[in-house]
Specification:
The structure holds two protein chains of two kinds. By secondary structure, chain A is an all-alpha fold. Chain A has ten helices and no strands. Chain A is about 70% helix and about 0% strand. Helices cover about 35% and strands about 20% of the residues of chain B. A five-stranded parallel β-sheet of chain B has the order 2-1-3-5-7. A two-stranded antiparallel sheet of chain B has the order 4-6. Chain B is globular and about 50 Å long. The chains are: A mainly alpha, B alpha/beta. Chain B: GO terms for molecular function: 4 iron, 4 sulfur cluster binding; metal ion binding; oxidoreductase activity.
């Protein structure tokens, strides 16, 4: 993969991902409302929310918070560019982690008790999902012999899912954490706008909060892209299969979001490491030894 | 175009009400009335909120809290006094510790009377508040341009 290709993909991702992510967020809210017996907001509600946030008074508690949020957004977009430009999956995983770390710094730097608690909980979330995310990258390498997304997506002889189905299930488990869905929405819940479960954004307001929303849209598109990659191979028809699977996964996430109560962080950490060890470990051992 | 009216996020504070109005405020957001149809989200953070729903009267103890929440909210912002106690002090107005309605502490934009205030009245009040929000939003945009 050339650098130019990734840069072009980054620019395209920066334009398209917020649009797709915004529609997905709107769809999420309507489907959630229907599951709760409500009519729900218009499809473009997330767009209205963000436009409103940019119209609000511009205030910040310090000079560094917005810088960290902007850095987090830039690295999230770059990560999307690396992935959809067919770049290195390992680099993609590290870039999105860097984005998460910048976001944690943004919450910590305000020195607000609730923001610090939210940041601590977000750190535990990162600790929980990171092993499985790394196993995913290694699993793709073991299954297809390459870390390059372009090579994985064009692999001859069937999709990667055939060899790494346990890793796929593990990724589905941690996807709930990454998409900030209940039962694992410990630091930035969509639903309960309370001090602790929305601690991350306590001190973020107006345009800063708008940037956080846009970052979340980009991340959603990227993570759904990860799940789609499991079903891609040399056959162009596999793109349709991947899109269908991504739609199903997204619906399943909304279903889980609406039907499971939030767990304590201890359970999240233990269960996600157990899933990583069992799903990822057994699958990788099988590929390496058998 | 002002988007403030399309996404009114509310924050709810109970001054010293009997909780009747609080229950109605929450009922407004429940499936029966579904405030989210109009983009209403119940936030727990004054920094995220656009509309401040106050129930109950203001007394010597909570007047500072009401002012603090109001001051933490960012412009454009609207205050809705929910229920007769928040409007005038209501049945508690003669109590030794009660100062009066919310307008004794902060500027109120919309009064929603009732004991308890009905969800229909509250939705009407929020819709009226949203118009005020739009006017304030436009004024803020012009002030920004003027800089």
């Amino acid at each position: 993969m050339t650098l130019i290709q990734i840069l072009i993909a980054t620019v395209v991702f920066a334009v398209l991902a917020p649009v797709i992510g915004c529609f997905l967020a709107g769809l999420d809210r309507i489907i959630s409302a229907r599951m709760q017996g409500r009519v729900g907001p218009p499809l473009l509600q997330p767009y209205y929310d963000v436009r409103k946030l940019f119209e609000k008074e511009d205030a910040a508690v310090n000079t560094s918070e917005r810088v960290y949020v902007v850095c987090a957004l830039i690295f999230a977009v770059l990560s999307g560019g690396i992935f959809f430009g067919g770049g290195n999956l390992l680099l993609d995983v590290f870039t999105i982690t860097l984005s998460s770390l910048f976001f944690i710094m943004a919450a910590y730097c305000t020195r607000s008790p609730y923001a610090e608690m939210g940041a601590a909980r977000e750190t535990i979330q990162v600790m929980s999902y990171e092993p499985m995310v790394l196993f995913m990258a290694v699993g793709f390498f073991l299954a297809t012999g390459s870390f390059d997304v372009s090579a994985i997506a064009a692999a001859p002889g069937g999709p990667a899912i055939g060899k790494i189905i346990l890793i796929f299930l593990g990724v589905l488990f941690i996807l709930t954490i990454k998409l900030r869905k209940s039962p694992f929405d410990l630091s930035m819940s969509h639903h309960a706008h309370q001090e602790i479960v929305r601690g991350m954004t306590t001190e973020m307001s107006g345009p800063t909060l708008g940037l956080v929303e846009i970052m979340h849209w980009c991340e959603t598109v990227l993570f759904l892209g990860w799940t789609g990659l499991f079903f891609l191979w040399g056959n162009p028809a596999s793109w349709i299969l991947a899109l269908v699977v991504v739609a199903l996964v997204f619906f399943a996430e909304i279903y889980i979001d609406n039907n499971f109560a939030r767990v304590k962080w201890q359970f999240m950490l233990k269960s996600s490491w157990l899933v990583a060890l069992l799903g990822g470990g057994i699958n990788m051992a099988f590929l390496m030894l058998v | 175009m002002a988007f403030a009216s399309k996404s009114p996020w509310v924050i709810h504070y109970d001054g010293s009400s009997c909780n009747g109005c609080d229950i109605e405020v929450l009922a407004t957001l429940c499936p029966g009335f579904d405030g989210e149809r109009f983009g209403v989200v119940n936030t727990g953070n004054p920094k995220h909120a656009d509309i401040f729903l106050v129930t109950g009267s203001v007394n010597e103890r909570n007047i500072e809290v009401v002012r603090e929440i109001y001051n933490q909210m960012l412009e454009p912002k609207v205050v809705v006094a929910c229920g007769i106690c928040a409007c005038t002090g209501g049945i508690f107005s003669d109590c030794y510790n009660v100062i009066g309605g919310v307008d004794q502490a902060i500027p109120v934009d919309v009064y929603a009377p009732g004991c308890a205030v009905r969800p229909e009245t509250l939705i009407d009040a929020i819709v009226a508040g949203v118009e005020v929000l739009d006017q304030k939003s436009k004024a803020l945009a012009e002030a920004k341009k003027g800089k």
